[in-house]
């Protein structure tokens, strides 16, 4: 088989960006014809690594490499192997360093490719991947550190969805033995660096990006079971999670992920987490009352309410919600505002009513403020049903009376009342009360 012409490959990569359809099709056909040739994928990586090459060609090479890996890395019995074993070893030996020293646009494509390769070869056929990644934590370069963390997140996030099996436990154990302690040390070091960076906004942005990725990796590694390392170092993690929630950083993704992390512990590891939960209830409560009703805050609000819902329905934590003023404050300041129909909701309903209904029905996998608030009501009712009914009955009656006073103007009040009734497992009792008192 003739050697590939690097210039021809680069030219055709450039032509895939042409505005002329015929030129693009010919270039795509050429690249498809050479995809199975030896050294093709290695050549693509060389183009990506060529700082003198045109930036668009390098991006095209990275995308082509990623797509080729997606199509061809998995070895299927009785089908031709388009990537030779020698090329596979060369790629695995070069791609991590290349990814970490590449600009962000290229790094993202290569990180995705590493994840695809990792799904097939890690850990059995790529045992040195984690040690290679971990050594980069000491670089002090947040571009490199974030590249490592993004790759780790891509590799480990499937642990959230995999069925339990001996093979899965073996892999997670392999990962924890090599990655858990370095991750904890990195988290502490980055939190200390955040305290030192002061008003350096550019550096703080990189630091917060790292912390967000660390929190995502933490969630994945803790999802299946509580690892011994994280149980022993829970104080380090929870102390810093609490700091991040109470510093008013306005980092919505980060706050949302931390809410997910502590909700996971509250739901699955409640005995081990019991001593930390009261402080998180207070912190997340303060986060909720200080967060605006804008659509961009929906994810953090729904996750925060979800945490409170998880805590409220567990016997261990029912004492946190026993005071009448606490219940009243949660119902009035968290549930009612997030049950109400907002202008943003009205826009979604007008633009796509089917989508609005789909995401709001019970059982939908889409998180919304209204569904989260409804879950919180059900959680509170588990141990405090009668008092919750008394609190909400007055609100429902007031909403319906407001609607009756001016049905055209105050239709949203009726919608909120109906929503509160509809999602409540005790709605029959409340409905009877409201019917009598309206």
What's the arrangement of secondary structure elements?
Elements: H1 6-15, H2 21-34, H3 40-49, H4 55-72, H5 85-101, H6 104-121, H7 129-135, H8 142-156, H9 166-196, H10 201-223, H11 228-232, H12 234-246, H13 252-268, H14 270-273, H15 277-290, H16 298-312, H17 324-339, H18 343-351, H19 353-360, H20 369-405, H21 411-422, H22 427-437
Helix pairs in contact: 1-2, 1-4, 3-4, 3-5, 4-6, 5-6, 6-8, 8-10, 9-10, 10-13, 12-13, 13-16, 15-16, 16-20, 17-20, 18-19, 20-21, 20-22
Description:
It comes from Desmophyllum pertusum. GO terms for molecular function: nuclear export signal receptor activity; small GTPase binding. Its main location: cytoplasm. Residues 27-101 form the Importin N-terminal domain. It holds the Pfam family IBN_N. There is one protein chain. With 438 residues, this protein is mainly alpha-helical. The mean pLDDT is 88. The protein has 22 helices and no strands. It starts with 5 loop residues before the first helix and ends with a helix. Helix 6 (104-121) packs parallel to helix 8 (142-156).
């Amino acid at each position: 088989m003739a050697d590939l012409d690097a210039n021809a490959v680069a030219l055709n990569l450039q032509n895939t960006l042409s505005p002329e359809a015929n030129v693009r099709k010919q270039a795509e056909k050429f690249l498809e014809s050479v995809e199975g040739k030896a050294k093709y994928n290695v050549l693509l990586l060389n183009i990506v690594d060529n700082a003198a090459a045109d930036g668009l060609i390098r991006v095209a090479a990275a995308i082509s490499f990623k797509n080729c890996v997606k199509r061809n890395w998995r070895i299927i019995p009785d089908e031709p192997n388009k990537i030779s074993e020698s090329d596979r070893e060369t790629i695995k030996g070069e791609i991590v360093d290349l990814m970490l020293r590449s600009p962000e646009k290229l790094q993202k494509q290569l990180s995705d490719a590493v994840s695809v390769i990792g799904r097939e070869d890690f850990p059995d056929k790529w045992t040195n991947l984690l040690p290679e990644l971990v050594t980069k934590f000491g670089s002090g370069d947040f571009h490199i550190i974030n590249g490592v963390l993004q790759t780790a997140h891509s590799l480990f996030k499937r642990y959230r969805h995999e069925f339990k099996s001996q093979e899965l436990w073996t892999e997670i154990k392999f990962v924890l033995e090599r990655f858990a302690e370095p991750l904890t040390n990195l988290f502490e070091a980055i939190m200390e660096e955040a305290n030192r960076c002061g008003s350096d906004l550019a550096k703080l942005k990189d630091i917060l990006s790292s912390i967000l990725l660390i929190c995502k990796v933490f969630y994945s590694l803790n999802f299946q079971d509580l690892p011994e390392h994280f149980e022993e170092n829970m104080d380090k993690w929870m102390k810093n999670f609490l700091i991040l929630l109470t510093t008013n950083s306005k980092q919505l993704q980060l706050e949302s992920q931390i809410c997910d992390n502590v909700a996971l512990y509250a739901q699955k590891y409640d005995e081990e987490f019991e001593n930390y939960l009261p402080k998180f209830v207070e912190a997340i409560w303060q986060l909720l009352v200080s967060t605006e009703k804008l659509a961009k805050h929906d994810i953090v609000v729904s996750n925060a309410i979800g945490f409170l819902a998880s805590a409220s329905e567990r016997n261990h934590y029912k004492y946190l919600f026993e005071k009448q003023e606490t219940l009243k404050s949660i119902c009035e300041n968290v549930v009612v505002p997030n049950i109400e129909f907002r202008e943003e909701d009205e826009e979604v309903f007008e633009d796509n009513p089917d989508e609005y209904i789909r995401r709001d029905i019970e059982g939908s996998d889409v998180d919304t403020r209204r569904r989260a608030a409804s879950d919180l009501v059900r959680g509170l009712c588990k141990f405090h049903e009668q008092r919750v009914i008394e609190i909400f009955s007055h609100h429902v009656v007031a909403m319906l009376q407001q609607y009756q006073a001016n049905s055209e103007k105050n239709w949203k009040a009726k919608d909120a009342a109906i929503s509160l009734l509809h999602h409540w497992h005790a709605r029959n009792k409340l409905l009877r009360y409201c019917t009598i008192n309206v």
